[in-house]
Fold this sequence. Notes:
homotetramer, mainly alpha, DNA-binding
Amino acid sequence: MSQVAYLPVGKREQTKVQNRLAILDAAREVFGELGYETATVRDIIRRTGLAAGTFYNYYRSKEEVFAALADDGAHRFGPILKAIRAQSLGDFEAFISRALEAYFEFIADEHQNWIARRPPDEPHIHIQGETPEMAAVFKEVRDAMEQAIAGRQGPVSDPDYMAAACIAVAREVGDKMLERRPVDTKGAAEFATAMILNGLKGLPKAPA
Amino acid sequence: MSQVAYLPVGKREQTKVQNRLAILDAAREVFGELGYETATVRDIIRRTGLAAGTFYNYYRSKEEVFAALADDGAHRFGPILKAIRAQSLGDFEAFISRALEAYFEFIADEHQNWIARRPPDEPHIHIQGETPEMAAVFKEVRDAMEQAIAGRQGPVSDPDYMAAACIAVAREVGDKMLERRPVDTKGAAEFATAMILNGLKGLPKAPA
Amino acid sequence: MSQVAYLPVGKREQTKVQNRLAILDAAREVFGELGYETATVRDIIRRTGLAAGTFYNYYRSKEEVFAALADDGAHRFGPILKAIRAQSLGDFEAFISRALEAYFEFIADEHQNWIARRPPDEPHIHIQGETPEMAAVFKEVRDAMEQAIAGRQGPVSDPDYMAAACIAVAREVGDKMLERRPVDTKGAAEFATAMILNGLKGLPKAPA
Amino acid sequence: MSQVAYLPVGKREQTKVQNRLAILDAAREVFGELGYETATVRDIIRRTGLAAGTFYNYYRSKEEVFAALADDGAHRFGPILKAIRAQSLGDFEAFISRALEAYFEFIADEHQNWIARRPPDEPHIHIQGETPEMAAVFKEVRDAMEQAIAGRQGPVSDPDYMAAACIAVAREVGDKMLERRPVDTKGAAEFATAMILNGLKGLPKAPA
DNA sequence: GATGAATGAGCGTTCATTCAT
DNA sequence: TATGAATGAACGCTCATTCAT
């Protein structure tokens, strides 16, 4: 009967956080499989096994779950990126390199958890899009890169295009990376860094 | 009833192709305005003035019209790209440069027609995502680049990543380009080419 | 094959008007049994046997069916009341008497149709409120009475109270009348007229 | 834990009656603001601050709270009406006059309390329909009138219609009265009495 | 082939009500 | 008893799709 509790331990609290997590997990899956637009609130609740109305005890809309998921990603990745920024003051290339590596590691990790949680009997659920977490982290990287590019000393040819191009490379290479086994974040980061800084002509002609 | 024609272009065939075109036009508009996900078959047929059922005499679903639209773009762009390939045999850089320019010109043109067709009293219909044609042409470019990269003499570090990166830059810069006034396809092509070939460090420090 | 048609006779048109009528009939019933607030669109369509979506091919909302029903009643009763007004110019008592009689006849008729249409195997569906038609007709009578009272020569003690009182008597006596068998519109009209004009003390002490 | 009380008014009982009152108060407000149909159990419990389930420890449904509220009104008004009946034995006109006055005073009072309880910053919450108390008191008056009418010496033309008519006048004039400022219960009672006893023709031609 | 009303699954959401705590 | 999350039926409504005309 006595109870030393650091966290809420009543059965009620327990099922509450379980449900919340179940909804978040289901939402992550559904967004990943169907994409944000196609996903429906009912898809999410169906996957939890909960009753329809229960969803609304936790979130008011699809948008809100999505935001919660994205926030989560941003909160986990934000500090990492901040540290990188601090370490790379003035060294643009170092920043690019480290930020890309951190980004690739993060999405690889997410993806891993994602895959792991899936029951093995549904072999070919293709992932249609990013999870909200990945999207959020991507946005963080984009912002950081845009600032880094804008802040570079010396006039720049076209910062807007530059940021767009860098970001595009990061995202696309990231997606490809996730499709490979084993997932090689180091390799992807090296490639993306080289590509962004020096272009195709700067890439090593022979694979490592 | 009367029929003076050497080719089977009777009234029946005429309205058939007219309807098909009407549906395609309407679909193009709707996809542009609403985006693929948000657009509904109803939106499309509403705009044609045709009956709901008529749609299904031509296409079986939203997906299918989209594909048809994309095919159309691909058919128009295919020959252009083929010619470029023929002209640039062995000269990878030239191919990249010309293909990008052709791509940017094509999408700028599409976009222009799009804008022009709109009645001037609805000033701010923002185009949601790419049109199907852009998507298709983009796919063509991707294929060509992949082949060009794969076919480059000498071993390459990672053709898959390379193609992905090039393609990503092309797409992203293309999108940005369309947002600017005036639409500068030359400038975009120059930037993308330089970025792809030499990376950020190879870009001119000062704007032209 | 030849067809002399004064009204739309295609099967399509036929079922269309049938459905419209079915919906109106069902709505009338549902409003009568459940009252406007409690009635739902689904109650209405359920009773028609049509599919859920079909309702919306005819009316956009509960409000709209209600309005259609009410309009119908008003259109049928409007001319009658107008004629009475014209006949009774300057003779307030005559107007009251005739208007009440017309009102009671109208609602008796409505109620009769109503009852007749019901399948006899549901013995005790209590009518919760007026049908929209009755409500509309009632409103017409109210307006007419208010004008008549306001327009009476000589200053009046309190036209607002007077109209409210007359109207209240008409409605309440009307409701009671409908509960009796046989429905005696003449008797109800006589009573209401006497009551309104002369009060309890003016009523004959013995029933006719 | 400590309990110094001669009557069983422990904490338990106190909160029990408090909760019951809280629910009744909230219900009164909600019915007044939203009307009976529109009001939901949720609206009521939300306003009490109690938990959803607690409601069902006291009442089984919206209907039941409504009835309780009505009972309350009836219990407060019942004795008043009884006294009037006793005072007016045999004098029908006196009974009508006094009962109406008591009725109007009661509903004015109810309405006043209602208005007064409202926070002054929400100036225009219109009261939707009658409060349950008014409905109940109204019912008492109806019963009394029916008995009085039925018990009048001499045969009566139609006691059922008569009661309905009187009651209708009382209700309608009462409603109008509440809409006016200042609320004039005397005036309303005078009007209603005159109208009921002598009809329109018996009303004074000029306002007082 | 064109038509357009009918269909019914499905969506987002609310609500009365239950019941483990 | 009070609590408040869970429940699931029901609502209004839209949509892709069918099919008799």
